[in-house]
Design a protein that fits this description.
The chain has 373 residues and is of the alpha/beta class. Helices cover 41% and strands 22% of the residues.
């Protein structure tokens, strides 16, 4: 099984924290769609005949496209690849785009999962983040999607923002619990260089992000998940019952995927490649039958490190038996390094290494300590 990711690099306005590649101009929209259709032909052999189990429209803001434009891309993929009968087709959207009419049109063309960029249900947070939608729109589009027939709904929530208190974060989670949603992606606010937020903080117009507050918010998230029987199956992803995201889970389990569009990444087990993060350069290259990408070949140590990093992020942890079989040259040192980790942060059995609840917030640092050079 394999996945396909399509990057739609358009947004109505720039969120102040975002460092993804996007444009607020739709000038090249028609040419982008034509280029995506052509890139599908140019890249049709990348997955070597693997059946496609997930398609994910990300961005940017894919909900800026109309349903006919999205359908063109879906039809081309379905004509080009072998599609699994139980395929998950996700589209990211913002509440201000997802009117009842738009949601119904997406449902009719075969989108069966929506990932809604809510970020918060509270006005002060949305103003701080420079989001285009209102708190009312955030709740209404979820209700509308449920009425239309979407049973697989995910939303994003950000925590650790200076605009948030402990009580307001709890309020966000309480509102979520009352809505008909079965998946949550929740991320700590990070300040990336060259974003508007980065410059606003440097100029003293906004307070810096408080990592201690983010840690408290994360603890509250974990407690909320236990209380309401949500599965915290990956550091940033939670679901009711087993409504895991097929597409995102494939990333953590090392499944191959093809990325289409400017700035999209692809992975086939032995290498990673990423398309140029420039819409005009992408369109011009595709026009002459060239895919403009950079390539990174993954050596044995790269593969070992990725296995550690992705495994630790999930409830399934790192399979130590498979790790020893696949990377015998690194395994003895790995065991020594595990012994140096704070025992309160890990659950270390004979067969599996997992993070404890206390260790999850420090996942990246713990993984880095276990990497091989």
């Amino acid at each position: 099984m394999a996945g396909i990711y399509i990057h739609i690099p358009f947004c109505k306005q720039a969120c102040n924290y975002c460092n993804f590649y996007f444009s607020t101009s739709l000038h090249f929209k028609d040419k982008l769609i034509a280029s995506l259709l052509k890139e599908i032909d140019l890249r049709k052999n990348y997955l070597q005949g693997e059946t496609i189990s997930s398609i994910y429209f990300g961005g940017g803001t894919p909900s800026i496209l109309n349903s006919n434009e999205i359908q063109k891309i879906l039809i081309k993929i379905q004509e080009t690849f072998e599609i699994d009968n139980a395929i998950e087709i996700t589209l990211e959207g913002n509440p201000d785009d997802l009117t009842t009419k738009k949601v119904h049109a997406l449902y009719e063309i075969g989108i069966n999962r929506l990932s809604i960029g809510t970020q918060s249900f509270l006005k002060e947070d949305l103003i701080f983040m420079n989001r285009a939608h209102s708190a009312k729109e955030a709740e209404q589009c979820i209700k509308d999607a449920s009425k239309v027939g979407f049973r697989n709904l995910s939303i994003d929530l950000i925590y650790g923002a200076p605009s948030q208190s402990i009580s307001s974060w709890k309020k966000n989670l309480n509102i979520l619990q009352e809505l008909d949603i079965n998946h949550l992606s929740s991320y700590a606010l990070t300040v990336e260089e060259n974003t508007p937020l980065y410059h606003l903080i440097r100029k003293g117009k906004y307070p810096p992000v408080d990592e201690n507050l983010a840690a408290i918010h994360f603890e509250i998230l974990q407690e909320w998940a236990y209380k309401h029987n949500w599965n915290h199956y990956e550091i940033s992803n939670l679901s009711r019952e087993a409504n895991y995201s097929k597409h995102n889970t494939s990333y953590w389990q090392g499944t191959p995927y093809l990325g289409l569009g400017p700035a999209a990444h692809s992975y086939n087990g032995s290498s990673r490649q990423w398309n140029v993060s420039n819409l005009k350069k992408y369109i011009d290259a595709i026009a002459v039958n060239q895919v403009p990408f950079e390539l990174e070949l993954l050596n044995k140590s790269n593969q070992f490190n990725e296995t550690i990093m992705t495994g630790l992020r999930t409830i399934w942890g790192v399979d130590k038996t498979l790790l020893a079989q696949k990377f015998p040259e690194y395994y003895a040192n790995f065991e020594k390094q595990v012994d140096q980790i704070n025992p309160d942060w890990i659950k270390n059995s004979k067969d599996v290494l997992q993070l404890s609840d206390a260790g999850r917030f420090y996942a990246d640092g713990i993984a880095a300590d276990l990497f091989t050079a």
